[in-house]
Structure formats: C-alpha cells, structure tokens
C-alpha cells in the first residue's frame, strides 16, 4: 500500500479508502443489500492486513449500524491511532428547524451520536454530508469549528458540493477563524467526470484532498455489462437512478476498460481505479466481498500508459448531474433530502 497526506492536514492516509456504506443492518436503512457484522468485520480486517488505514462511514448508513460495525472492528483489529476514521452528518430535519434547533446544536448532537456508535472519543475527519440550504452557513462552520476545538474531530471535510460552495465556506472560515475543509468527497469516476469542470482545478489550487465516492460506479466499472449479476446490482435502486439514463454512452468506456484489463492481465477494477488514482488523493471504494478490497489494493501498483489513459478518456461526453448533486439546490425546509432520517427512503425525482 502507498500513503499520502490528506490535503492541508497532517493525516497520512492510504491511497485507497474503504467505503463502509455496504456495512450495516439491512433491515434498518436505505439499502437492502448491505452485509451483516460478521462479514463486515472480515472485510475490514482484510483491508487492515492490506495496509488500508482510511475508513469512511456515515450516521446515515443503515441508521448508524455501519458506524457501529466499523467501530467494533477497529477496536478489535487495530490501534486507534494508526487508522483514519471519517464519518458524516446529515442536514437538520424539518422537525429540528420547526423546533428552533440551531445548526450548532444539530452538529453537536450528530457528532455525539456518531462517537457513541463508533465507540470512539474522536474522528479524524468529520464530513458535511450534503449542503444544507435551510441552515445558515455561519452556523454550520461555527458548529464544525466547535467540534474541532472540543477534540471530537481532528479535521473537517465536505461532500456533495459545488466548487463555489466549498470556496465560500472556506473563505468564511478564514475570515472568522473557523476550521476549514481539508477534503471534498464528490461523485467522480471513469464514467462520471463532471468534477473535472471546476472542482478538480479548485482543489489543485487550494491543496484540498479529493476522496471521491462511487469510484467504481456501483460496480459498473468492475465487470462487463450483464456479467455477474449481484444482489446490489439487482436491488440498488439509487445506483440505477444515477447510472441507468447514461448506460449506453457509458458502455463504450466500460468496454475499453475491459479491453485494457484483458491485455494487461488484470481486473477491470484495477484498471478503473488506476485511472482514478492519477486524478485524486484517495478514492472511496466500497467493499462487500473480500475480492473487492483486494482488487482495489492491487490498483495502487498499476500504472497506465499515456496511450491507455487517452483511450479510456476519449469517448467521454458530458453527463447531467445525478443523485445527491442533482438535488443540490434551494428547497423548501419541509422537503426531504436524498438521505432522510428514520427509514432513509430515497427520493427519486428527476
């Protein structure tokens, strides 16, 4: 495994971050395809054995059970100071807004709940999961800064935002003496490259770490179309919402990844992640089977030629925003986000 600094922080992270959205009680959240604690622990332990020290979860994942599984596995298999744990918090709920719960109070409640789930005194990276249009930005940045000052988080990151939003937030933080975002977790992979418009240049200018999710497009970049149907590929309606509309144009790129993998004697996972690793700090790679994290770890050592990179990139055409980013716009306070509380049902409006 190789390691790098996480942006402007002093955190040394593995070039692969294990995404833990696939861990958790399948009866208690948004996804029906998540795996139980026994199998989650096996995968986390294998990741640790391979040198993966960076783990990403969220309070929204299966009603906090992902955090619980991760916390117990890290306690049993690793030294806390040798791993980097990231988790995320949700926007205020309509009920909280109606009851006058401030952004600062909401964040304090969220971090305390996550720490209890994880069984930890602090997280290394606390991530603003999605832009909250109904809460003043000052309250968000002040609340996050308080969490850092209290020692409950070492650094803060942001997910699912536009470049202007993180730039605005960090400018406010600099003006007020608040903690600044050191990382951005956006939607970025070989078949969805819209982050290259503004976020990639911004992060290069400001040394913001890029830790994208959906690194393998929910498995689409790890196998040929129609090959090896999985429980997730059948049941993950959110991934279908993000990718089905552009499946025909994406298939050209996927077939090229398969072609290079066959020529090089490696997997499509390795090719797809090797490409992404030339663009970002540490991609968040989900794993629900041992070979998922094993393939991701191998990608760190695969170097694509300039010709192979150009061949993979050439067919790409602009995509419409999908998933959480498609909903990153001003809404009514009562409107649910993609990740809502309670049963966390997906809002699949287009």
Summarize the SSE layout with pairings.
Blueprint: E1 3-5, E2 12-14, E3 17-19, H1 37-49, E4 54-56, H2 65-77, E5 84-89, H3 94-98, H4 103-118, E6 123-128, H5 137-149, E7 153-159, H6 163-176, E8 181-185, H7 199-206, E9 209-210, H8 231-235, H9 237-243, H10 247-264, H11 268-277, E10 284-286, H12 290-299, H13 306-313
Parallel strand pairs: 3-4, 3-10, 4-5, 5-6, 6-7, 7-8, 8-9
Antiparallel strand pairs: 1-2
Helix pairs in contact: 1-2, 1-12, 2-4, 4-5, 10-11, 10-13, 11-12
Give an overview of the whole structure.
This protein has 13 helices and ten strands. The chain has 350 residues and is α/β, with parallel strands linked by helices. The longest helix has 18 residues, at 247-264. It is globular and about 55 Å long. The protein starts with a strand and ends in a 37-residue tail after the last helix.
